Hints:
Blueprint: H1 2-22, E1 38-41, E2 48-55, E3 61-82, E4 94-99, E5 105-106, E6 111-113, E7 118-136, H2 142-145, E8 148-156
Parallel strand pairs: 1-8
Antiparallel strand pairs: 2-3, 3-7, 3-8, 4-5, 4-7, 6-7
Amino acid sequence: MKRKYVIAVLTLLGLGVVSTLAFSLGDLNSSSVAGPVTVTQGATAEHLDTVDVKPYLGSDGMYIKIGLTESSEGITLDVAIEDSSDPIDISTYTFFYKTSGVSWTEISSPDYDSDTGAVTLPMTGSTFSTIKLRISKASSSIYTNAETLIIYETAWS
């Protein structure tokens, strides 16, 4: 009987420690794990529903997960990333996208606009409702320097 109580108490204590660790990281803006603090959808981004930004695991970069309001066979987005005052030059970065059930596909010749800092990313596939973007470059600090992510939808099919 006492053994069951000891196990129950230890289990509760263990859960308390785990939950404390899980929620003690604090706000991303003030912790050692930085990340974009603002996501702006352009006025024409009518099919973008949710945008989640995460660090890229592996070589430095970031993941952008975009949920769409309805299924699509193709979408083109202009994406710009800014630090506190200026666009970050992403013209030499590598861009990949992934739709439902498809492996990562590199966007071979993204169109970069040096005036706005935006890169045009066309994505196609079978019917999909979620897109994952991967923006990466070896030895980059894009994720820790980014403060604003701007997304404009420029084409839809």
